[in-house]
Amino acid sequence: MIKALFSRSEAGGPPLQSTCGALGQGAIVVQAEPPADARIIGAPAPASRGRPTERIGPAARRRGPSAGEWHVKIATTVVRSGALSVGGDADLLLIAGPCVIESWETLCAAADGLRAAADGLPFTLVFKASYDKANRSSPDSYRGPGLARGLEMLARLRERTGLPITSDVHTPDEAARARDVLDIIQIPALLCRQNDLIAAAAQSGRIVNVKKGQFLSPGEMPNRVLAARGPGGVARAIATERGTFFGYHNLVNDFKGVASIRAAGIPTIFDATHSVQLPGGRGTTSGGEREYAPALARAAAAAGIDGFFFEVHPDPENARCDGPNCMGLGGLRKLLEELAGIDALVRGRLEDRR
User: Fold this and answer.
1) Alpha helices (H) along 56-187
2) CA-to-CA distance for 234 and 264, rounded, in angstroms?
3) What is the pLDDT of residues 36-63, one digit of tens each?
4) Which residues touch 53 (CB under 8 Å, ≥6 apart)?
5) Are 284 and 140 in contact (CB under 8 A)?
6) Can you tell me the distance from the alpha carbon of 343 to that of 353, in angstroms, rounded to the nearest whole number?
7) What's the pLDDT at 215?
8) What span, in angstroms and rounded, lies between the C-alpha atoms of 79 and 238?
9) Which residue, among 120, 124, 146, has the nearest Cα to 133 in the 3D structure?
10) Residue 248: count of CB within 10 angstroms of its CB
11) I want to staple 183 with a disulfide (CB 3.0 to 4.6 A). Which of 17, 50, 164, 316 is the partner?
12) How many CA atoms lie within 13 A of 354 on its CB side?
């Protein structure tokens, strides 16, 4: 059993602090001061700071069983575009689909399987597939059908399924052409410092998903969001954590960094499948360890993440891109149920799921 809460002394004791303990023999307790501006779900803003009470849903406002307990989930800013809402007390975002468009049949099989897996669960499903994988280990690797044909296929899928669509763009011109099809415009991790690209994506008025570069520190992500200021100076941007380089051909995840990004108010998505990628690990292709993706996703849910990113393929062993780190449809429903349950615990919503 895991106990995670924010506590405050009832008699003017030590300041607000985080306590996370694995209960039982050999219990581990970690204590840390939260950022000064962290907004804790369930905690009214201190009157001395003159800050208004957090505007979040009634379920998330519930406090713990005693007056001294506070929920661990930090309330990020709500980012909206059309019918989509990400962050704050919105449902978890679920970005999922094959790495690259391979065929119409594969797109439909993946979309139908994902809809069935997420049906009835507190997720907002957004289908993802790339029309052009410009970042490949080898110049001879399959890249996809290209911009024009790929957008046409994604638009057709959107009409068939009713699902919101996302894909990655690589140039400002692509961002302008993709705006009529994509509900979320994704900035690839290796291009996250290209300010002109991010700015062009932001001008679409769509939500911009900036994937954190494998070389970037968490503290640099607020600047990436500032680059995404669109019409009216509003930044409709979210961040995706996808691992950090750990030597050659390997990635690690820093969940303290995830908390840091969220504490800045940025809705943060966890990319479980790219986090287990082994970049360039097979010479002409990347390797992967998909068996670890569920464990990392559960850890992210416990850290209070705002959503998840999974590369999912009907036949991962024969996927034309990122097969080794891609998940299959089998077992996905069970994993999503587990993630929803962990999120409910973090948000203090267990009573809502009984």
Assistant:
1) 58-61, 104-118, 147-161, 172-178
2) 16
3) 444 433 334 343 333 233 332 332 333 3
4) 44, 45
5) yes
6) 11
7) 94
8) 8
9) 146
10) 9
11) 164
12) 5
